[in-house]
Q: What sequence folds into this?
């Protein structure tokens, strides 16, 4: 419930330029206007379905570097296609078509972040397994959290050390 209140508050805040700085209001409304003004293009669900299918094939739990690199190229192509996505419902109330298009943009950014992180982590750990090129954990180099920031339209990686408290890390043995 709190999330719904916050998000609806953001929508009211972004729509009211009198109560918000002009640059932030513009930053929020330009992408919406661009999507709603476009009358020709590809439907977002096609891109979303292709993203889901290819991420499943190329970027599952068991990963190969060549598949991750292939997925990076696929996502770049999907992001290019997203620039021409069309929203058919032009309404401003309960517009699930617009919501789907906005969410797709975020999913494409998330996919880029996952791919960059996966390529950078040269080990197998938890849900990131590279059994063909890096089958073991590498605590010396990768006992750290991956931090991803979106800067200048691309993911930028940073790292933060893991703070070991009560439980000592150990390799999973099934």
A:
């Amino acid at each position: 419930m709190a999330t719904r209140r916050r998000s609806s508050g953001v929508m009211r805040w972004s729509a009211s330029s009198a109560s918000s700085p002009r640059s932030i209001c513009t930053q929020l409304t330009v992408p919406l206007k661009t999507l709603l003004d476009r009358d020709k293009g590809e439907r977002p669900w096609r891109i979303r379905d292709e993203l889901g299918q290819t991420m499943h094939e190329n970027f599952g739990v068991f990963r190969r570097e060549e598949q991750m690199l292939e997925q990076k190229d696929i996502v770049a192509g999907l992001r290019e296609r997203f620039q021409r996505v069309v929203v058919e419902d032009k309404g401003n109330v309960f517009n699930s078509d617009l919501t789907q298009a906005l969410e797709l943009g975020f999913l494409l950014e998330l996919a880029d972040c996952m791919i960059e992180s996966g390529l950078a982590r040269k080990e197998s750990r938890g849900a990131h397994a590279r059994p063909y090129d890096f089958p073991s954990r590498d605590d010396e180099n990768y006992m750290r959290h991956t931090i991803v920031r979106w800067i200048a339209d691309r993911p930028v990686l940073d790292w933060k050390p893991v703070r070991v408290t009560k439980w000592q890390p150990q390799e999973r043995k099934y």
